[in-house]
Amino acid sequence: MDYNSKIYNRILTIQDISCVGQCSLTVALPIISALSVECAILPSAVLSTHTAGFTGWTCRDLASDMPNILQHWVSENIKFNAFYTGYLGSPEQIPYVLDIFSKTSATECKIIVDPAMADNGKLYPAFNDVYVKKMLELCRNASVILPNITEACFLTGFHYKEKYDKSYVLHLIDALSEIGLNNVVLTGVGFTENTTGVFISINGNKTYLCHERINQSYHGTGDIFSSVFTALYVKDFSAHDSAKAAAYFVMESIKETIGDSNHSYGVKFEKILSEFSYKINKEGVNSIKTVYDQIF
Ligand code: PXL
Q1: Separation between Cα atoms, residue 71 and residue 277, nearest integer Å
Q2: What span, in angstroms and rounded, lies between the C-alpha atoms of 151 and 132?
């Protein structure tokens, strides 16, 4: 089979299936597909639910399947124009993931790593320092990384602060750069009570996007951000424009969800996905008026 054509953008995303909970693969696949990019998947693990807000979840780590899956892809000469990784099941997976990068990448290939492992100053329950170290190795192989502030702190050893100012963020970006991470889209960066945003540093070129902060936190919004970002970045939108569209989509998805007290485990992105896709395809990112560029 000639699966190695350059006609289409073809992403491979590697992250878990949380059967219930609207995160990781159950959001990446519909969002990336709706944005007209082919999305192949490699489930890193299968969990009954995600690990935030549920108790007693089941988890099957699929690390041991990865070598055989890779071997088959290599035998079929399957290549990808981009890789997007998120929540991985265990540190043992990371060498397999790096092997997949090296053996199945097309000549031109973007690698987007969301080091989905922590939030609000804490690692997710399944992870520890060994995982953080391996994740750093993965990040060093990325074209761009998409950490939140907590994840950036774990990667660098920088002290985590709940409240911070602009100089803290600049120092955190410097700390990432010192360990070789120069292309960073830092999410959840807000300097006032009513705003949040995204700080983007691409090879030293820094921009900040700011938007309304809705005072309600939902699980899975990081994965939704990363999925939109990835699809657009792979379609050659800049990191700045991809982040702008992604922040807008997250904000609109949250607005769809507030008011439904039975829906705290994720956001209702489904209703607005086709309209968003149409808007971006037809009018481009400049049609977004509610996420502002701010001089930093
Ligand atoms: O959204 C990140 C994520 C993905 N997958 C699983 C998780 C989490 C965050 O808690 O538990 C299984």
Answers
A1: 35
A2: 9
Assigned token pair, 222: 């990081």
Q: Does domain 10-295 have CATH number 3.40.1190.20?
A: yes
Stated as kind and residue range, the H or E segment containing 293 is strand 291-294
Q: Determine if ligand 1 sits within 6 Å of the CB of residue 47.
A: yes
Buried b (16+ CB within 10 A) or exposed e, 188-208: bbbbeeeebbbbbbbeeeebb
Scan for tokens 């005072």, then name that residue.
215
Q: Could you tell me the two tokens for 39?
A: 């999305």
Q: Please give the Cα distance from 14 to 45 (Å, whole number).
A: 10
- Do residues 122 and 103 make contact, with C-beta atoms less than 8 angstroms apart? no
Atom of ligand 1 nearest to the CA of 16: 5
Mean predicted confidence (pLDDT) in 71-76: 98
Q: What is the pLDDT of residues 134-192, one digit of tens each?
A: 999 999 999 999 999 999 999 999 999 999 999 999 999 999 999 999 999 999 999 99
The one-letter code for the residue type at 207 is T
C-alpha 128 – ligand 1 centre gap (Å): 14
